[in-house]
Amino acid sequence: MTITGTTRLLGIIGDPVAHSLSPVMHNAALAELGVDYVYVPFPVQADDLAAAVQGLAAVGVQGFSITIPHKQAILPLLATVTPEAQAVGAVNTVWRTEQGWAGTNTDVAGFMAPLQGRDWSAARAVVLGNGGAARAVVAGGGQLGLNKVQVVGRNRSKLADFEASWASSPLKPPLSVHGWDELPQLLPQADLVINTTPIGMHHTAAQTPLEAAELALIPDHGLVYDLIYTPRPTRLLTLAAERGLSTQDGLEMLVQQGAIALAQWLQQPVPVDTMRRALVAWLDRSP
Predict the structure, then answer these.
(1) Of 19-23, 209-213, 255-259, 278-282, which range is least confident?
(2) How many secondary structure helices (H) and strands (E) does the chain include?
(3) Is the Cα torsion angle 104, 72, 121, 258 positive or negative in sign?
(4) Does 269 sit behind a cis peptide bond, omega within 30 degrees of 0 on the bond before it?
(5) 114-156: per-residue pLDDT in tens?
(6) What pLDDT does residue 287 have?
(7) CA–CA gap between residue 38 and residue 140 (Å, rounded)
(8) How many other C-beta atoms lie within 10 A of the C-beta of residue 130?
(9) Active-site residue among 71, 148, 158, 172?
(10) In the annotation, is 172 catalytic?
């Protein structure tokens, strides 16, 4: 890839963002397509979000991805938001329009991708965390037909706000909220456990949102799905595998949501397999 004075910019904003592998997969796809774009990370702290969004527009960025902690906070800074993103209440993909920045949510489709092809209509899901990623999981769980989606958090006030925020959503997910102390009652009934928290990401790789004793409560047929994709596997998934549970990391979600975003930015089909291979190769080389 050669960067020149005409190269157009794409990127990702978040805090932290250094761990992100989005540049790996997007730049692999851009190189294969032979288009004059480059995708770069932009570390943006919460207090700097509004200034950063204005700055990205000022320097001609064509579009960008959004990760923790900005997926909800960016909504009022956008000129338009797609109905799906409005229903979810979180945005992870933004692109330039004549009216200003437009946003959508590709996390929902990305989350659902590894779970397709199975009947979830009688299943119960326990969702760890109630941030922007959890919103995509709740929406996806509703679309998958889950019987119950039980969101668990540590802050009762934020949990109440999370639940209330879905009251007017057209998605109407089968949602209930619970304190972290309720996990001993919830996990024995769970068919699917999803970690949407940042616990276990590269900078906290030694940590896990659930310890072995808690994983032991999950039924033998249960699936543990960690949205984190680096390290691979996370400590949560290592412990879950040792318990004999099925596991799913966040790599395929990353690939699928990224492919939808890149197609939106370029307005053309993108090489999904190339994106996946680039990520796997990078992770295989990582210590």
Answers:
(1) 19-23
(2) 11, 12
(3) positive
(4) no
(5) 999 999 999 999 999 998 889 999 999 999 999 999 999 999 9
(6) 66
(7) 30
(8) 23
(9) 71
(10) no
Using DSSP's 3-state secondary structure scheme, residue 32 falls into helix
Residue 168: exposed, middle, or buried by beta-carbon count in 10 A (0-12, 13-18, 19+)? exposed
Domains and CATH numbers, the chain: 8-105+252-285 (3.40.50.10860), 109-249 (3.40.50.720)
Give me 80's structure tokens.
């338009």
Residue 223: beta bridge partners?
A: 192, 246
Which strand (E) or helix (H) includes residue 30? helix 22-33
Average pLDDT over residues 76-103: 95
Is the model's pLDDT at 67 over the cut of 70?
yes
Q: Give the contacts of 158 (CB within 8 A, at least 6 positions apart).
A: 130
Structure confidence at residue 146 (pLDDT): 97
Please tell me the predicted confidence (pLDDT) of residue 68: 87
Single-letter amino acid code for the residue at 109 = A
What mean pLDDT do residues 75-92 have?
Answer: 93
In sequence order, the 6+-apart residues with CB closer than 8 A to the CB of 49 are 13, 70, 73, 74, 77
In DSSP terms, which residues pair with 125 in a beta bridge? Answer: 149, 192
Pairing label, strands 63-66, 93-97: antiparallel
Determine the Cα–Cα distance for residues 107 and 109; give it in Å rounded to an integer: 6
